[in-house]
């Protein structure tokens, strides 16, 4: 690397040693969106770079966290959006340590049933009434045997398929020294051996590993419906991720997952603009001009979009083009009250499983109903997921008592369709970045953090390495020369 140094004209070195352009001495990075994606970009920029960059963050809401949000019903607070984390979600695990947040087990469902609209196809038995560890263990064993009798070795094949996918994903935690910075989602997935999973449906992948149709139509369908509101015709990678989200060791942040975003923003020396929606992003040659609903303009050398663009109408100049993508809407309905056992063909509410999953049938008005908390024998808080809003008349049918109801319509995650076509991480070939391009692979808090870490490294390698010309990045000197020529 010492020979090329001689080729660099002396005047360039002189120019660089003189006062560098103000643009590069104290650049501003603007991040749109304060979910786990945006806050992770800020965090990793600070972690990987000592440069005194200004970081501005914009959030249209009055709170940070985005799809990590809580809902308060009858005075008690629950996760309204993203709720569970996997034991191998290492970035978010690190966040909880860094921010000294407490972890908790998610509100566990003691019993589980698969409802087809007329009857339960499957119902595990509950250990709750005994409260004796030995009995609980036995009950759990009986349930395992029961599931095994119904689904056989397909259960093990499913586990192998999930473990294999998780194993490949762990590549993204390799030390930065040996891990490339990825310019595109395709390249990023290819490198970990995950790309093929996005090119075919989950059903096709499961047929490949010889999983029985019964397991697919029942348990696996129930899981993809709960986690992504979609069927086994969704793409394979997101499907595998949703199956991983149904295993053991799951956790959540005590007091709300949104605190991870709040803590990362607080610890990353960020200028936070709440209640400020960005309406337009215009590239003016050396920087982007961001205009907000407050009538303010901001000049940013680097701009990061950390929210799905599919349902937004931010005006881009020059225009950008990304593949069309539909968001899957999930209606989350929270009810304080008591279910109506008659609706489920039962004589007592205690016989209804804590988690009611459903199979794929267009006549079913909901995807799942789960108990978030049992307050007393006849007083519960429930969460219902559905693809369409739950009408009052329908809720009156399903519930015997309904003291309070809150409905949230989430533009929840992409509608996964194989083969997936990915938007670029760099939207304009310059310094406009898009974290949520990765959501077509899978949408979770951790995958957002993984995509954000890569985008932070991409920013540092594409923008900041130019500012400090050292022997290690002489390769990029040609583009520096171009910039200098433009300036002169
Ligand atoms: C019901 C539901 C259940 C889920 N369950 C899980 C789960 O159990 N586990 C899991 O890991 N994941 C789950 N997810 C997925 C998870 O929530 C997302 O993958 C993740 O939170 C996405 O984070 P993000 O930062 O990319 O986007 P977001 O959290 O959506 O953040 C984007 C932010 O940008 C803001 N914004 C948008 N436009 C503008 C603008 N023009 N100007 C300023 N601000 C703007 C938005 O208000 C928002 O705050 C679930 C999602 C939903 C909806
Ligand atoms: C988590 O933090 C530890 C200690 O700071 C670090 O060694 C490790 O690499 C981090 N893990 C990830 C996945 O970033
Ligand atoms: C992905 O599919 C291609 C083409 O079928 C194949 O050559 C390649 O080996 C596959 N990669 C992985 C990691 O399975
Ligand atoms: C913000 O960070 C500071 C230290 O940097 C810490 O003392 C404070 O408790 C944090 N506040 C929140 C709300 O996390
Ligand atoms: C943004 O605001 C500036 C200053 O008010 C204005 O000159 C510019 O035309 C605006 N850009 C767009 C795209 O509206």
TrEMBL record:
<dbReference type="InterPro" id="IPR010795">
    <property type="entry name" value="Prenylcys_lyase"/>
</dbReference>
<dbReference type="Pfam" id="PF07156">
    <property type="entry name" value="Prenylcys_lyase"/>
</dbReference>
<dbReference type="Pfam" id="PF13450">
    <property type="entry name" value="NAD_binding_8"/>
</dbReference>
<dbReference type="GO" id="GO:0030328">
    <property type="term" value="P:prenylcysteine catabolic process"/>
</dbReference>
<protein>
    <recommendedName>
        <fullName>Prenylcysteine lyase domain-containing protein</fullName>
    </recommendedName>
</protein>
<comment type="similarity">
    <text>Belongs to the prenylcysteine oxidase family.</text>
</comment>
<keyword id="KW-0274">FAD</keyword>
<keyword id="KW-0285">Flavoprotein</keyword>
<dbReference type="InterPro" id="IPR017046">
    <property type="entry name" value="Prenylcysteine_Oxase1"/>
</dbReference>
<dbReference type="GO" id="GO:0030327">
    <property type="term" value="P:prenylated protein catabolic process"/>
</dbReference>
<dbReference type="InterPro" id="IPR036188">
    <property type="entry name" value="FAD/NAD-bd_sf"/>
</dbReference>
<keyword id="KW-0560">Oxidoreductase</keyword>
<feature type="signal peptide">
    <location>
        <begin position="1"/>
        <end position="24"/>
    </location>
</feature>
<feature type="domain" description="Prenylcysteine lyase">
    <location>
        <begin position="136"/>
        <end position="467"/>
    </location>
</feature>
<dbReference type="GO" id="GO:0001735">
    <property type="term" value="F:prenylcysteine oxidase activity"/>
</dbReference>
<keyword id="KW-0732">Signal</keyword>
<keyword id="KW-0325">Glycoprotein</keyword>
């Amino acid at each position: 690397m010492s020979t090329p140094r001689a080729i660099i004209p002396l005047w360039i070195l002189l120019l660089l040693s003189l006062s560098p352009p103000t643009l590069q001495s104290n650049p501003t990075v603007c991040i749109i969106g304060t979910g786990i994606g945006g806050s992770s970009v800020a965090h990793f920029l600070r972690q990987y770079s000592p440069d005194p960059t200004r970081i501005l963050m914009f959030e249209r809401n009055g709170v940070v966290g985005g799809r990590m949000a809580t809902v308060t019903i009858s005075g008690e607070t629950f996760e309204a959006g993203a709720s569970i984390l996997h034991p191998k979600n290492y970035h978010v695990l690190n966040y909880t340590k860094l921010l000294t947040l407490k972890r908790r087990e998610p509100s566990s469902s003691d019993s589980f049933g698969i409802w087809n609209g007329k009857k339960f196809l499957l119902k595990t038995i509950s250990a709750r009434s005994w409260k004796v560890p030995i009995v609980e263990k036995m009950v759990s064993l009986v349930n395992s045997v029961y599931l095994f009798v119904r689904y056989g070795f397909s259960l093990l094949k499913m586990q192998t398929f999930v473990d294999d996918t998780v194993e490949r994903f762990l590549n993204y935690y390799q030390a930065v020294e040996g891990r490339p910075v990825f310019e595109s989602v395709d390249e990023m997935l290819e490198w970990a051996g995950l790309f093929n999973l996005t090119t075919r449906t989950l059903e096709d992948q499961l047929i490949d590993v010889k999983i029985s149709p019964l397991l697919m139509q029942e348990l696996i369908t129930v899981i993809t419906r709960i986690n992504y509101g979609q069927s086994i015709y969704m793409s394979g990678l997101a499907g595998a991720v949703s199956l991983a989200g149904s295993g053991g060791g799951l956790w959540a942040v005590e007091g709300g997952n949104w605190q991870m975003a709040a803590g990362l923003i607080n610890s990353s020396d960020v200028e936070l603009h709440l209640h400020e929606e960005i309406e337009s992003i215009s590239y003016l040659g050396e920087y982007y001009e961001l205009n907000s609903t407050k009538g303010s303009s901001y000049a940013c050398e680097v701009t990061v979009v950390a929210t799905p663009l599919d349902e937004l109408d931010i005006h881009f100049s020059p225009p950008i083009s990304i593949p069309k993508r539909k968001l899957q809407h999930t209606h989350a309905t929270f009810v304080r009250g008591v279910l109506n056992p008659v609706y489920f063909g039962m004589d007592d509410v205690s016989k209804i499983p804590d988690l009611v999953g459903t199979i794929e049938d267009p006549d079913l008005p909901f995807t799942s109903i789960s108990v978030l908390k049992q307050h007393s024998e006849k007083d519960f808080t429930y969460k219902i997921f559905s693809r369409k809003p739950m009408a009052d008349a329908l809720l009156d049918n399903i519930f015997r008592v309904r003291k309070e109801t809150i409905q949230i319509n989430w533009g929840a995650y992409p509608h996964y369709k194989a083969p997936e076509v990915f938007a670029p991480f760099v939207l304009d070939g310059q310094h406009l970045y898009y974290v949520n391009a990765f959501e077509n692979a899978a949408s979770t808090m951790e995958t957002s953090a993984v995509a954000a870490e890569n985008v932070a490294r991409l920013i540092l390698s594409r923008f900041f390495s130019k500012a400090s010309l050292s022997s290690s990045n002489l390769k990029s000197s040609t583009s520096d020369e171009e910039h200098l020529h433009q300036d002169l």
